[in-house]
Specification:
200 residues, alpha/beta, Rossmann fold, five-stranded parallel beta sheet, 5 helices, nucleotide-binding, magnesium
Length: 200
């Protein structure tokens, strides 16, 4: 049995969840873990002097739990309830390969996760497009006026620049303004190449 752990990180509203779901439908024995499932309760998330809830930082997340969930999956992917349907467009000898897609906005800035990735993707968006998309989404709790400019975007830039400064980190940056079909085609082909390497 072999496992492949794929990171799908990047900007808020960059299309991570959509891409992960589409990949899951196309890849054999594929499962998803979403970082959004590991937010601390609202009462435990810090508030800054402007009254902004600081959700876009590592401290807002139960990262230890997330690492444990990924490691548990890696130890026994078959017991995770992952579907072992006949893979489409892939070979029979991939039946003993399991793929985990971990999607979230802060995947590569947390040291305990860094040894787990087989491939890392990072979706980017320009400021205006990100702000436009964010304004169409409903969050709990809702974004307060100025929240995007005052917290969300600055934190994205901070963590992205940390990532870019880390020369040892191999990350494939993806343009989130491209069509979903284009992004899906690129990442799917790339993962199939990784699967073929595992088989060799």
């Amino acid at each position: 049995m072999k496992v492949l752990v794929i990171g799908l990180g990047g900007v808020t509203n960059g299309g991570k969840t959509t891409l992960a779901e589409k990949l899951k439908n196309m890849l054999p024995n594929c499962d998803i873990i979403s970082q959004d499932d590991f937010f601390k309760p609202e009462s435990e998330v810090e508030t800054d002097e402007r009254g902004f809830k600081l959700y876009d930082v590592l401290d807002a997340l139960c990262m230890d739990e997330m690492v444990a969930s990924i490691r548990n999956w890696m130890e026994s992917p078959a017991s995770s309830g992952v579907m072992t349907e006949e893979p489409r467009n892939t070979c029979d000898n991939l039946k003993n390969v399991y793929i985990l897609i971990v999607e979230g906005f802060l995947l590569y800035n947390y040291e305990p996760l860094n040894g787990l990735w087989n491939r890392r993707y990072f979706l980017t968006l320009p400021y205006e497009e990100c702000k436009r998309r964010r304004s169409t989404r409903v969050y709990q709790p809702a974004d307060t006026p100025g929240y995007f400019d005052g917290h969300v975007w600055p934190m994205y830039l901070k963590y992205k620049s940390e990532l870019e400064e880390n020369a040892s980190m191999q990350v494939d940056y993806l343009d989130g303004t491209k069509s979903q079909e284009e992004l899906l085609s690129y990442v799917y082909s790339d993962i199939i190449q990784e699967l073929n390497k595992l088989r060799e």
